[in-house]
Amino acid sequence: MFVLQDDAFANEFRRLLWWLLVATRGGEMRMKIIEVLRNEPSNINQISKTLGVNYRTVEHHIGVLEKNDLIISEGEKYGKVYFLSPALSRNRNLIEDIRSRERR
Hints:
Layout: H1 2-23, H2 27-39, H3 44-51, H4 55-67, E1 71-74, E2 81-84, H5 86-90, H6 92-103
Antiparallel strand pairs: 1-2
Helix pairs in contact: 1-2, 1-6, 3-4
């Protein structure tokens, strides 16, 4: 029974990732932000400098990722630091799977 729940969760999570990272505008930027956070928790300013993009662009995509529980934050205002959510950390292989399918 737990396996079915895990499979169901993985399928739903895969659909969410595909929708946010492939099917919608901005998916490529969200993928880049996830990669930055995968390497090191960061605030919006650090992410924008790392990626060489506008602060507001990162702010928008961080909002989308946070709204969909793919990232979490600690702190307030400019000191707020973002991390991958536990669900995304546990299922990082799904991102690689989605990425490899898109390259085909």
